[in-house]
């Protein structure tokens, strides 16, 4: 490509040639054609390089790394190579619907801040069910950390953001980089920090534009994480969160990582932390209890049954009907006592 494209798409991958091929083809099939795809191969992987070379599209660039540095590092390096003013992120096991970039670019053009993060709903596809997430969009004035973390149901949350839904200015992704070494909640961490800047806001497209494939039998390095590491991350992130959001993350997300240890000390530590530095609500206590009492597989089964009930996705469906709003933004001035920011997390702890 001799001229700079309008959108750069960054896809980190390693040892998943079939999956990344599907992801790349979903980008090349976008109705927006003025783009480049940067696939960062995170370490030695001849098979992936071969299948990508066979695609034969000059919009595709492959950046092989000599050794693996993890997905956050790969994303940062891909963004560094981006030539477009906008960069979209895509995980190698997900795919986009054809109008994804077109819808998001339209919303970005109408944003009221200099550096909008544009997300969208997605289709969460598991071996047992398929449903739309997030279940609702943020209300005007609602603190985004609370929208994305505080539960209104026992087995699921309402708010959500995921890597493959994110379109953002390349300038922002270079200013606020992904945290290298953080193995889980990478998007959540990035979104918290990005939204702490006054010229940044989070905007949502109402329609689902991404297919999030959750093959729960497929190994994921991000799932093999010591819960104490994420607890330390949460404690460092506390200045970016409201008290309600901090309690929700402690009692649901971090607890879901600690519960398999069956450690009484971990149970007491997390409950004490949430009560001391957060403001737990009734659903936080109920979620905390069921996370420690019910095995994870059973919890996921119950969640899927609840979310695929008739009418469970009524709000999501209604938002895509003609005349329904296609954008939601919840920006408010940042004040020291209660900073407004935004959350994320690819693993299903946030929305499940």
From TrEMBL:
It comes from Plantactinospora endophytica. Residues 311-352 are annotated as: Disordered. This is Glycosyltransferase 2-like domain-containing protein. Pfam families: Glycos_transf_2. It comes from the Bacteria. InterPro entries: Glyco_trans_2-like, Glycosyltransf_2, Nucleotide-diphossugar_trans. Residues 321-340 have a biased composition (Low complexity). Residues 8-115 form the Glycosyltransferase 2-like domain.
